[in-house]
Design a protein that fits this description.
Keywords: Membrane, Transmembrane, Transmembrane helix. It is a single chain. This protein is of the alpha+beta class. It has one domain: minor pseudopilin epsh fold (3-Layer(bab) Sandwich), CATH 3.55.40. It contains 3 helices and 9 strands; from the N terminus they run H-H-H-E-E-E-E-E-E-E-E-E. It has a 5-stranded antiparallel sheet, with helices on one face. The chain has a 4-stranded antiparallel sheet with strand order 3-2-1-6, with helices on one face. A hairpin with a 2-residue loop joins strand 4 and strand 5. The longest helix has 23 residues. It is elongated, with a radius of gyration of 27 Å. The N and C termini lie far apart (71 Å).
Length: 159
């Protein structure tokens, strides 16, 4: 009889074993579930990050090249952004060969300056302090569900 009670007490799992198995199953479920989730929303974030990177590059160039005839213009269109130093600051659309450009994979951007939407194409000019002349009251560029803001002082961040 004493042997049967000992065998009965050891027939189950301990709490540590159960927690370990549940933890491993949870980790596997998260890893496997990420494979089945679509790429929706990824294109918008990539477009936002590329646009932000391009804006920051032109901003840095504007702050480094401060001579009076320097033109640091970025043209925002429905399909993408173009850094167009070749056409000069008098042109409103890209002409010739652009130095840098990105093509939006997601929907067309919505650019708003001071809270009101602006028509595209929009020329964005940086001054020697890194400020956008169009963003005196702040700007916002939205690409579907991903957006970033440009503060009046030139600071750019996802919002």
């Amino acid at each position: 009889m004493p042997g049967s009670t000992l065998a009965k007490a050891n027939s189950g799992f301990t709490l540590v074993e159960l927690v370990t198995v549940i933890l491993i199953l949870g980790i596997l479920a998260v890893a496997v579930a990420s494979r089945f989730v679509g790429a929706g929303g990824v294109a918008e974030v990539v477009d936002r990050d590329q646009a932000l990177s391009l804006l920051r590059r032109v901003q840095m160039l504007a702050m480094q090249q401060t001579h009076s005839d320097a033109c640091h213009r970025l043209i925002l269109a429905d399909t993408g952004m173009v850094v167009d130093d070749l056409s000069g600051c008098a042109a409103q659309s890209p002409g010739g060969e652009a130095d840098l450009s990105i093509h939006f994979q997601s929907s067309a951007p919505v650019f708003s300056a001071g809270g009101s939407p602006s028509a595209l194409p929009q020329a964005l000019d940086f001054d020697a302090l890194g400020n956008l002349s169009q963003c005196q009251a702040g700007c916002r560029l939205a690409l579907a569900n991903a957006a970033f803001c440009i503060e009046p002082q030139g600071y750019m961040h996802p919002c």
